[in-house]
Amino acid sequence: MNASRCLSEEVGSLRPLTVAVLSASFVVGVLGNGLVLGMTVFRMARTVSTVCFFHLALADFMLSLSLPIAMYYIASKQWFLGEWACKLYITFVFLGYFASNCLLVLISVDRCISVLYPVWALNHRTVQRASWLAFGVWLLAAVLCSAHMKFRTTRKLNGCTHCYLEFNSENETAQIWTEGVVESHIIGSIGHVLLGFLGPLAIIGTCAHLIRAKLLRDGWVHANRPKRLLLVLVSAFFICWSPFNVVLLVHLWRRVMLKELYHPRMLLILQASFALGCVNSSLNPFLYVFIGRDFQEKFFQSLPSALARAFGEEFLSHPVPAAKAPGNDGSLQLGAGSRLS
C-alpha cells in the first residue's frame, strides 16, 4: 500500500477531531473501566450488581481497548491490516458495542424489577441467575455482530483501502444491486438501529419512568433522585449514539436510493459519529458508579472506597422515605444486598 497514492476527501477538521475524541475515549475508557474491573474482581463481594457491572465494564473496556487501531486507520486515511483483520477487528468492536448496550438494558430492568416487585426480587434475584443472564447477553451480542464477520471486506476508493460492510462483496468489479442485496442493506442497517439504539433507549427510559412513578406512589420524598440519575444516563446514551445511528440511516438511503457504494466523505462522517458513540463507553463508569448519593462526600474519599460505596448503593441513588416503611428497622428491603433507606 502506498499512502502517497491515497487521495482521501476531507470534511474540514473532522479527521483530526475524530482522532482526538478517540484518543480521549481510549485513555478515560481503559482507566475507568479497568478500575471497575479490578474492584469487582478483587475488592468487592460477588452480588447481582457487581456481576452486572463487571460485564458492563468488560464490554466497555473491550471497546475502549480497540480504539488505537481505529485511530491509526482514520489518521492514516486507509485500512492497513488486510481483509481477515478487518473482519475480526470490526466484529470485536461491535461485540463490545452490542454487549454494552444490552447490559445497560439488563441493569435498568433489574433495578426496575427490584423496585416494582421487591418481594419477588428478594426471592429470585440471585448471583447465579445474573451470571447466566450476562452470559446470554454476550451470546446475543455475538449473534448481532456476526454479519460483520461474514460480510466485512476491504476495497479501494480513490486509491485508499477501506474496511466496510458489503453484502455483494462476492462481485469484485461491478455494483450489483439485486433485490436481495438491497434487502440485506435495509435489514442490516435498520436492525442495527432498532436493536442497538432505539430498543435499548426505549427500555431504559421506560424503566426510569416506572421506577420514579412507583417511588412517588409509595411516598418516597426523594423520588426525583433516581429520576435525575436515570435522566443523565438516558441522555448520555442518546447524545452519544444518536448521531451514529442517524448517519447510518442516511448512509443506507444513499446506498439504496442513489446506488452509491461508500463515498469517502460519508465514510469519514460515519467514523466520526462512531467516535462520539465511543465516548459513552468511557463515561459509563462515571455515570453508573461515581454519580450517586453523597457524591460530593465520596469525592474526598479514596477512589476505591468511593467505588465500593457506589456499588453498595446498587446503581441508583436510593431515596429517603417520608415515613417509616414496614419492617423491623423501618426500611424497605428490595432485594439481596439492595436497600432503600
UniProtKB/TrEMBL annotation:
Protein keywords: Cell membrane, Disulfide bond, G-protein coupled receptor, Glycoprotein, Membrane, Receptor, Transducer, Transmembrane, Transmembrane helix
TM ranges: 20-42, 54-75, 87-109, 130-149, 186-208, 229-254, 266-291
Keyword flag GTP-binding: no
Gene3D superfamilies: Rhodopsin 7-helix transmembrane proteins (1.20.1070.10)
Residues covered by region (Disordered): 322-341
One term under GO cellular component: plasma membrane
Organism whose genome encodes this protein: Macaca fascicularis (Crab-eating macaque)
Main location: membrane
PANTHER family for this protein: CHEMOTACTIC RECEPTOR, G-PROTEIN COUPLED RECEPTOR 32-RELATED
This protein's name: G-protein coupled receptors family 1 profile domain-containing protein
Keyword Isomerase: no
Compartment(s): Cell membrane
Family: Belongs to the G-protein coupled receptor 1 family.
Entry's Gene Ontology BP terms: inflammatory response; phospholipase C-activating G protein-coupled receptor signaling pathway; positive regulation of cytosolic calcium ion concentration
Gene Ontology MF terms: complement receptor activity; N-formyl peptide receptor activity
Membrane topology annotation: Multi-pass membrane protein
Domain annotation G-protein coupled receptors family 1 profile: ranges: 32-288
